[in-house]
Amino acid sequence: MNCIRTLFLTGALALAAAASALAQDSQLPIYLNTAYSFEERATDLVSRLTLEEKQSLLGNNMAAVPRLGLKNYNVWSEALHGVLSGANPSVGILGPSSFPNSVAIGSSWDPAVAERMASAIADEARAIYATGTKGLTFWSPVVEPVRDPRWGRTGESYGEDPFLAAEIARGFVRGLMGSDPKYLKAVPTAKHYFANNSEFDRHVSSSNMDSRDMREFYLYPYKRLIEDEKLPSIMSSYNAVNHVPTSASAFYLDTLARRTYGMKGYVTGDCAAIQDIYDGHYYAETRELATAYGLAAGVDSDCGSIYQRFAISAYEQGILPMALIDRALINMFTIRMRTGEFDPDQMVDQMVPYSKFEPSRVSSAANRALAAELAVKTPVLLKNEGKALPLDPKTLKSIALIGPQADDVELGPYSGRPEASAMISPYAGIQAWLKAKGYDVDVRLAVGGDIKSKSNLLYIAYFEIEKTDGSSTRYDATKYTASADGITVGSGMGEEEQVRSIDDGSWTAYENVDITNIENITVGLNIPTEGGIVEIRVGGPDGNLIGRIEATKASGARVGGVYGASMPMKTNALKLGYNGPQTVYLVYKAPQDAPIDEATLQTAREADVAVVFVGTDENTATEEADRLTLLLPGNQLKLIQAVAAVNPRTIVVMQTLGCVEVEDFRHLPSIGGILWTGYNGQAQGEAIPRLLFGEVSPGGKLNATWFKTVKDLPAITDYNLRRSSGNQGRTLWYFDREVSYPFGYGLSYTTFAYSNFRISKNAITPNDKVTLSVDVTNTGDCSADEVVQIYVRTPDSPAALERPAKRLKGFQRVTIPRGQTRTVRIDVDCADLWFWDMKADRMTYDPGRYVFEFGSSSQDIRGSVTATMSGKLNRRLKTVWASCDASVLRIGDTAQASFSACMNDDSFYEGAKCVWTSNNPAVATVAPDGTVKAVSMGVATVTCAVTIDGYTKEDTFAVKVMPDLGLASLKVGGKNVKLGDAASLSYLLKPGKAPKVEAVAADPAIDVTVKQADAVPGTAVVTLHDGLTGDSRLVTVNFGAKGVSDTFRKGALNKAWRWVREDPAAWTLSTADGLVLTAGKGDIALGSNSASNILLQSANSDWTAEAKMKGVPAPPAQNAGIVAYQCDDNFVKFVRSATFNFRRPAEPGAAPSPGQLQLLVEENGQQKSVVNLPLDGIAGVNDVLWLRLDKQGDCYTAWYSVDGKKFEKMGTAQAVLKDVQVGVIACEGEMPMMGRGGGGRRGAMPMPQAVPLQVSFSDFKLVSRGLK
Amino acid sequence: MPARLFILTLLLSAGCLTAYGQDLRTGVPTDGGGFLVAGDYLAWLDAEGNVLRKRPLSRPVTALAVCSDRLYALEAGGLELTMLDADGAVVSRDKLPVKGRLRALAADRNTLWAVTDAGEIVHRVGDAAWNVFDFNAQYTGYYPSMDFRAVAAGGGSVMVAGIGPDGAPAAFTSARGTVWSERLLDYTEQGLPCTFKGTVTALSYDDAQDRFYLLGSGGAQLALPGCSHCNSLTHYPAETLFARIAGSTKNLLLGSDGFQRVEER
What is the pLDDT of residue A1240? Predict the structure, then answer.
């Protein structure tokens, strides 16, 4: 037993503690030894895991592995604007701080704000982590640009323009990661990669776009964060892009994120995204395939449960290489190690700068102050007519605070739960501010309105007509024959298909519904938020009413939420005398708005000024639920109008997840001021008085365009940005209609004058950097912030190229004291002015003029400068990506390394040369062609260095070399034999005593046992076992006697045959047809192990078996052919089988299929590999086939013939069998388990019933051979 | 594939459920019908929910499982595992090689699972020997020491749940029973993070939805879908829920004080 194993058995953690500061101690397991690189340590750790342990670590609930000192770890945590957690008094943790959410932070236009916020979040995360209750990996930020404001997660995004989103996200990522060059303070995960920009259909839909929109818009933030900030993690999304699920796409994840942008880290699938590959997109036929697709694409962790349930079976089926499992775990553990998690306890404090964060950091006074400070920086002043704002508290005797958000704190999604004392509503904040300042103002509160959502009223699954005789008929609501515009069908995170996207006035129609003698009507529905009313009508949406169900939260109906399943709601039918089939309409209505009560209006009327606080909440739109309207929810519009009608000094304060329609009130003369903010964190109420009373001037700018009406938007499913039929263009890049407020808009209590516009050079190339300068003078009455924005136009670009009207390419928020001038300098990297050339598949630069506009918004342009672009980008090497087809090798193994070289125009360089080196050739060498050879136990880092045009870039990967599982010697009957790479030897001997087998392992650390054969025929089994990893290798030495051939036409079977589970009634012999088998139920595959009438004879040498077979297997799973059999769980089966697509069964009346040939291996009950050959075009349905199976050691080769003369090779498979028998089988077969239970989001398919299979075998030939 | 409880629709529509009295405790579906424990009786049901026969139980039964076409019952006290024949007669009472008292049973195809209040998870495949996994011993210092109360299996995994030393509930999942991952019992309510704090009484696997359900005190039903942080909590008007039986189109929930509810899928 070697040194490392000894250490291992005594417990890795105990050893780590004992080793103390001995980081260089070679006695430490490599994964605990800080002298090695993180990737080497991660590779070492992974090499020590069993297969079941590996599977258990492929999800976000990563299992504990005590023997390695591996703690359980939950990869999932959220920190979008605060650690998603509550108080934990048992460990001294208060409720975490909740800062302004992303839409608000984006509106600050200040990356430093995001960085400070994220740094504070990371402080709290570290403090919570230190208590052992939460991890350090956070699925934040959302960097998807807001393509459409109806997107349910608009509030989680930094904004509409990818440059703004990237810049704000940059600040967040920096703050969360910290500045230490080695260790991560916390781990950000940018999501949702990519184009998950609508919620209602995200599990099943495809976001379709051309490569230009993809690269320029949707991928841009990821590119920037990965390339510039070394982003360590991304989350692959639920949706498909161009019909390929992002979580199953090697192109999107491996080629783009890793090989193009250079992401070193892990990819987590969104929760159930791997499942969606299977039962959302139907992209994979089985969960095992979904697992294989996901891991092959590069999704390292499944925040679902598919990997953790099906990785082993995928591996055992031969569709998932171990190398992919290892690669995924290495990616994950490398990042976990970068947090210091695996550094020995005694060293953590010395090495990890974030290791000493006390619980008091959470909700600290400093963080409360920061939340208050940031809340002042995000609001945007939309209107300030006649200097309605700021209010002068000295002149006010009373102020009315009206509206549902006046005394509420709306934090928005993915927020922590702060201490109640930290959450300040506007009402509380205003009272406190006035009191603190010594003003005597009567503050009156009246809610007077509600925020009840009118989007997504209901999800409808079915309706049921019950008649007076007690009979009932259920109708699938999703099978409507007509519907109002906008209706969709989906299941979200659930399994039940439902009618969705139901708006006020929507309807669905159903023809031929028999309502004769109707008694009751039941509707199966879910209430996602507030609910609505279902009217059941006949003949039309306005037809006669036969039933009405009030499915509203207000009426006491159960609210299932956006993830909820349907519940039945029943009503008595109105008996109008209808007979026979009718067209029934389900008409959906929003609950009527509550009237604005007079008391509220009286409060507003009597005050000197009325401030109306309105907005949205998480019922308006959220994950899984988009908005159907951009109107303020509930009766808030009426509330604003009503208050404005009674108080000529009305101010509106809106707090929303994004754009809302404001045309119906923003021009009202009574409304002098409108202030907007995103969900503004726990201190939102502290910020309001400071802004309203002018202590601070609003300085935020809109992070998105505010459209006049939802009608200006194309379908939310349209992911194209450029104008086309039905799409007038998206975002400030392409939308050209009048808007309520443009992107970048925001007023101030002061005014700013721009002058002296400059550019550092007027002739530019893509390789230049320019500095744009402008003098900004505060010409008003107070100090304030201004955001100087740089927009770029390319007027010389050909019109056919449809370039954006303008793109944001720089901005800077500056504070300018009253009367002063600041020179604002903004650097623009001309390389960033690229467009995507769809033909050349690379970045390109339009020649000609580039107009750099200096704006206070995207439409308030104060001046511009022009430069002329010429020349080309100096194409140089950007990303080298090296990988290896194995990370864990055994001594003597070889593996193949490969690499790619991506240039700075995001194209790949063909023909690049890599210089391969190993940092530890004593462990692993690497040849010039990338062949890695394992030499001795240990770890090594292999480097690929690529030089192109003088630029050299490198990439590395680590390999771990394990003990050799080979044999130093093998003796059979006292004679040395050469095994080579084979796993099986075969001898052809006479029956009798079996020779003795002796074996010696190549590595003395490997245990060897030999189980001798009892006799000939029989098998000796050599087992090599690595106690370190649990890996085993079997070598079989088969001793067989000569087999017999049989025509099956002689009236009796040769006595060499024996039956397995004989059913005498189901087989006959005839001179004409030979052996005729009538297949029984079951199979020997897939655990059924019940097939009857398997006819076998001993064949424990090498051999070739051949049989003529006649019979046509029918769907779903009948099969018949030759079998090499050890037992029901270990065999090789070469059969003609039916083809049946479980998910897409043949249409009725379709021509029968000739089926397929199938070579299937099962070892230890696990299906290992399958080769399928469809017979279409090879054989007719009723054609006779000749099957031939050849055994050579552990290699089985299948051949087939349609004439008995010319045989075609069908495929090979490997299986280590012992005590082998060969013969024929016919059985009804067993369907795989996939989808039988529910079958995924679209329901299970019924299994077809086949007529019994009758098949005949004749002319069975068996030629035995083997070593003597 | 777990069997389906075809009986539920008719049970409810015909009002049969109440005919079983107020003491429906647990049940298990089979391909051709199912079994229910009703008071002191074990009832055989056909595919349409009719009572084929019923037989008095010699001891109270708290859990049933059908595995490899055999009916197993866990009797109050949890000292032995009882196998019943087609007539409900006791075929055998086996004392399992465990230290604790058996608290719950579950089956998935030909694998029978049980858990004990001493933190043991036992299973056997077919007629093979019992495999005992001493969770508390294996995971000392890594997971809380568990008093297991519930087990369910299906969809390629098994889930166990119980309470830790501080009374806090916890659940764990495994593919093959030797490596266990914690399944957090967090959920979101009104946008805010919450953690399930009640007592665990049972687990159920719903094949059609491919998800587990954890039942507990306060009428709590916590859905645990594949998405590991998409748990959702529902409260029912029962002091304690103690069984959820997934049918083909409906689910039957059983709780204390005669609580019975059939829910549409």
Answer: 39
| Structure-token match 């739960």, residue found | A417
Which H/E stretch holds residue B200? Answer: strand B200-206
Cβ under 8 Å to A: B residues 178-237: 178-184, 190-195, 207-210, 225-230, 232
For CA atoms A294, A295, A296, A299, give the dihedral sign. positive
H-run or E-run covering B9: helix B8-13
- Mind listing the pLDDT tens digit for each residue in A308-333? 999 999 998 889 999 999 999 999 99
> What pLDDT, on the 0 to 100 scale, is given for residue B183?
94
- Alpha-carbon distances of A1038 from A985, A1007, A1191, rounded to whole Å: 6, 21, 12
pLDDT for A931 equals 98
Give the chain B residue nearest A310 (alpha carbons).
B156
Q: What is the dotted CATH code of the domain comprising B6-264?
A: 2.130.10.10
Q: Which residues of A are catalytic?
A: 270
The DSSP bridge pattern shows strands A951-962 and A888-890 to be parallel
Q: How large is the ipTM?
A: 0.91
Question: DSSP alpha helices (H): ranges in A693-832?
Answer: 731-734
**Torsion sign over Cα B73, B76, B81, B86:** negative
Question: CA-CA distance, A768 to A227, in Å (whole number)?
Answer: 18
Per DSSP, which regions of A1180-1231 are E strands? 1185-1192, 1195-1201, 1208-1214, 1221-1227
Q: Which residues of A touch B157 (CB under 8 A)?
A: 305, 308-309
- How distant is the alpha carbon of residue A302 from its chain centre? 8
Is the distance from CB of A1215 to CB of A1008 less than 8 angstroms? no
B156–A1238 C-beta distance less than 8 A: no
pLDDT tens-digit readout, A451-486: 998 888 999 999 999 999 888 899 999 999 999 988
Gap from A88 CA to chain B (nearest CA, Å): 11
Q: For tokens 């001179």, what's the residue? A: A1071
Coil/strand/helix, residue A234:
strand
Task: Return the amino acid letter for A990.
Answer: K
Helix pair angle (A426-437, A684-692), 10° resolution: 50
A937-953 residue pLDDT tens: 899 999 999 999 999 99
Q: Write the pLDDT tens digit of every residue in A191-246.
A: 999 999 998 889 999 999 999 999 999 999 999 999 999 999 999 999 999 999 99
Distance from CA of B173 to the nearest CA of A (A): 9
DSSP string, A332-386: HHHHHHHTTTTS-HHHHHHH-TTS---GGGTT-HHHHHHHHHHHHHS-EEEEEGG
Interface contact flag, A312 B175, Cβ < 8 Å: yes
